[in-house]
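Fold sample X.
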Amino acid sequence: MKEISIEELKFLPKHSYQLIDIRDEGLREYGMIPDAIFINTDGSPDEVMAGLSGIPTEKKLIFYCEVGRKTRDLDDNFLVEARDCYSLEGGYIGYVRSLTSDEESRMEKQHRAEESIRKKFHKQLFTPFAKACKTYRLIEEGDRIAVCISGGKDSMLMAKLFQEIQRHRQCNFELTFLVMDPGYNDDNRALIESNARALGIPITVFESDIFDAVDTIDKNPCYLCARMRRGYLYSRAKALGCNKIALGHHYDDVIETILMGMLHGAHIQTMMPKLHSTNFEGMELIRPLYLVRESDICAWRDYNELHFLQCACHFTETCSTCHEDGTTSSKRLETKKLIAELKKNNPYIESNIFKSVENVNLDTLIAYKKDGVRHHFLDEY
């Protein structure tokens, strides 16, 4: 299929073409190019043609995926017959990168993002961030914290909130903004770096070969990838003199993890707000977005017209940022939809799920594990 660049697209009259997003639902939820429509090119020919039937035949069809590779492979597909079809060079990531402008605009973007945290979104973002830090004692005097940035909205906002709370000077601590490149393609790496510059986040980047290591793994590569990432981050953070690493998991991640554990793992557990490392002595993991809602993070992102990395996996390019349990976008999205459906009848469903692991009644449990040892109620019955 012929390619068209973002720059060439800018010179086309908007009425002369139709942008078509062919990415999966998890990626589309994260953002689409304005005026684009979705068509499932993996569906049946009838389904695809039904999707195209409403587009005037004189319009160019410009398909885009995440980075432009999938659309280039549509050459032999029946879609391209009798239509003027193009693949958008660089895909959605290329479009996002094109939004990065000159130095003056970047300074303006940084100021707007920081000002919105202090004013418009102070109650929704900074207040729960500070509350989590205080409630769970995440930041302590003399800490050296490695703020781990994946390139997504959560970790980027976390970095800005750390900068803001440090500005208050209520506690003396140091920050290192740490980015691990596990084998990103050039577009993903460039997007992270440009967003960091635009937001005034002085990142330290180091490289690993994690993507290559898990590329040939057939069974649960996401879980292995997530565990390897954690180990590399701990190791580099400790080498840099840090005693804590901060990850960007938020409130919705917590409740989704609780529910997924019950439905898919047959156990009750949660993401902890902080953990001692078992393999790196003296190191801790903290989650300062623990009380921050994802919808508020998205609102901050959209208000400031920011576009962040979601998919970084170079061998599937369809999964969202890996969670520690190795879940991919499909399972997590399914759980997210389930919670939204339950909320229609019970507006307190989210807080009830969150609080359920704080109100465990051991007297009513059949069995539980403590330090790896299983205890059964009949042991003391």
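Fold sample Y, listed below.
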Amino acid sequence: MAELAPDPLILAGEGWQDYGLVDSGHGRKLERYGAYRFVRPEPQALWTPKLAEWQAHGEFVPGSDEDGGGRWQFDKPVPREGWELGVGQGAGAVRFTAQCTPFRHLGFFPDMAPVWSWMGEQLAGKPDASTLNLFGYTGVGTLSLSEHGAVTHVDASKKSVAQARANAALSGMEQRPVRWIIDDAAKFTAREVRRGKRYDGIILDPPKFGRGPEGEVWRLEEHLPGLVADCRKLLDADSRFLFLTVYAVRMSSLAIGGLLAELFADLPGTIEHGDLAVREDGQGRLLPTAIFARWRRG
């Protein structure tokens, strides 16, 4: 029986050559993405910035609506079509295009870097692993997983899947065994259950709210339990992991940890939960970014 670890964990990412959290505070954060620096809103940065002045190429100014809106303001030129960055080393090194998107993101989530490393550790010794990436976005995590075997990448956005395929080409990974699927994640997962499919690992990063390619409505609090229940049916006692991240919701990691504890009660292993965070450059403060819960067999 999978046991729920009582104490939360902090899974912290460190900066690397192409990315770093330079400073944070007063509800904002300053980050470096290669040669460019940007300021974005960060409500959890309640403290005072360490630097007296922030020099940045651009800043995302949020709208008045708590649930979205806003625009970029640029003080220095930034390539409209994006610029190339990289993450990881060796066979798992991934190249991708960073870009200032209308949704305040820059084409990937840097706090996920330690998650990709952790998944690789869970798949060690299994070179033919089969994994599923739901809400796969621009494919950086998918390409990292593809070092270990076949990956099914699912996202409802045609534009995101097209960017993911472009990132595969940029990384020289076009021949990796990846299925690129444009579909509603919940509908696709339910079909996989009916087909009797199984996976060695699943990662899912659902939004707070979203729409599928045919207008399907996704509300996290309403639809997450059913999706995770279907994901559980795609795993068995020989599977290695499930990793769930949740952003921008008023929810404790204990809540999603408890959900996994209920659904994974018949499998061996451990269920852990806690915060994702990014450390400021120079061994600075930890900035929380999301909550997570994960099941691992070992």
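Sample Y note: Residues 3-15+82-296 form a domain with the Rossmann fold fold (CATH 3.40.50.150).
Also: The chain is about 20% helix and 35% strand.
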